[in-house]
UniProtKB/TrEMBL annotation:
Alcohol dehydrogenase iron-type/glycerol dehydrogenase GldA domain ranges (all copies): 7-171
Pfam families registered for this protein in UniProt: ADH_Fe_C, Fe-ADH
MF terms (GO), sorted A to Z: alcohol dehydrogenase (NAD+) activity; metal ion binding
Organism of provenance: Thalassomonas viridans
Domain Fe-containing alcohol dehydrogenase-like C-terminal: 183-352
Annotated GO biological process: antibiotic biosynthetic process
PANTHER family, sorted: ALCOHOL DEHYDROGENASE, HYDROXYACID-OXOACID TRANSHYDROGENASE, MITOCHONDRIAL
Statement: the UniProt record of this protein carries the keyword Protein biosynthesis: no
Keyword Oxidoreductase attached: yes
Gene3D superfamilies in the cross-refs: 3.40.50.1970, Dehydroquinate synthase-like - alpha domain
Entry keywords, A to Z: Oxidoreductase
Protein name: Phosphonoacetaldehyde reductase
Amino acid sequence: MWNFINPVNLRFSPDCLKNLGELIAGRSYCIVTYDGEPFANWVQAIRQSAGSPVKVVSNVEPNPSLNHLIQQARELKKCSPFPEVIVGLGGGSALDSAKFLAACESGIDNLVAMLRQGYDIPDIKTKIIAIPTTAGTGSEVTCWATIWDTENQSKLSLESKALYAEHALIDSELMLELPLGITINTALDALSHAFESLWNKNRNPVSNALAVQAIKGIFEYLPLLVKDLKNPKLRQKIAVSSTLAGLAFSNTKTALAHNISYEVTMKYGVVHGLACSFTLPGILTAMIGQDTKLDYALAQVFPVKLELAPQYMKDFFSILGVATEYADYGIKQTEWTAIVSNAFDGARGANFIGLKEVVLPQI
Ligand SMILES: [Zn+2]
């Protein structure tokens, strides 16, 4: 038995900010975004379309920390009544912050306690509109948010069906000015989401189909995009691939590569998109021939025979200038063995269909 659920109303549209007013439809709203340009300009475009927001939270952190989110939530709680809609505008950090702030409607202390204990939060009335300005995190189509408890050196996951966005607006014109590094890192995050949903105990035919198309799109178009960053058609192709990957892992969650990444990001400061993807060639090498359904899916995504797929993947990373050895990220062998072993034991590691003794020698 399997099912596939994703209730997000997806809209691929240019000029999405100008048309936001019709979706907000007179409801009170708050914008959660970053400081400075181009975000201030985009906030202005939203104002013109949807009227004045009750609040603009413009100090989103990269890798948002729990303490910072609590401060933002206290400020937002001063709005009375609480906004009916939270608009997240930005990369994964902005969208995840928007989810936390929407969830704090039910009480900040209560929310933090549930988050620390790993409970699903209760239903909330506040709706979320997600407008990603990068292509990769998939947060616009998932019902969870990653929050960093920097005091306790741990990563927390906020999760609830109530955190699915009411609308996700994908406008690749908002991504045209992204620099090379962010373009690569976020697309590799999407690539990881797609692979992680394939080598996943929760996979199903729909998530597999979405992941296969996502990977094919990233393999084909990312090497072209890195040489032509302002090409709108290529931006659109990667935005679509990222969304397909997001939809795939919205139903499976991630697996080993992501569970490895959290410690690598926390201890070594490696950005998420790199931390969760540099192990993909090694995991792929280990997993070929281990599982018939996985082999079937992998045979569809690579334009070469399966035995040549690991080299294809390494060459792909090499074209992007991304290192695939842990030592390249300043990690020593004993530390690496511990990180990988711990990753097998965590919740995301339990989603992974492979065996530690098969994978560890290859990554
Ligand atoms: Zn990710």
